[in-house]
Amino acid sequence: MNKHILVIDDDIGIRESLFLVLNDAGYQVDTVESGEQGIEKVKRNNYDLIFLDIKMAGMDGIQTLREIRRMGKKIPVYIITAFQKEYFRQLEGAMQDGVDFEVIEKPFDRKRLLSLVEDILEIYTPDI
To answer: Whole-prediction pTM value?
Structure first.
């Protein structure tokens, strides 16, 4: 079974980079540039993993994550950011509210990213 990954990031370079790395590793990858588009994709598709940028225009990553969790989706979400300190209070608030996620800081190494993805997808069983 081909694992399906969604990348939500307003930076085209990050989207393309993640797409190439993950697609070359054999994963099915969708990319979108906004939280709103990401929410629509999550409504229509079953994903095994989501990479989500925190700092985006419009709906930011925290709002997008909260909406995904309100839909009852238990998909593993990794917030990718270079702004963890700037968003620390919001991230901490989401954790305190029981919103499940992990954080990976930009820039990230290709090998580390693929190892992380393999580990996550090895233990994740989707609620279909």
So the answer is: 0.86
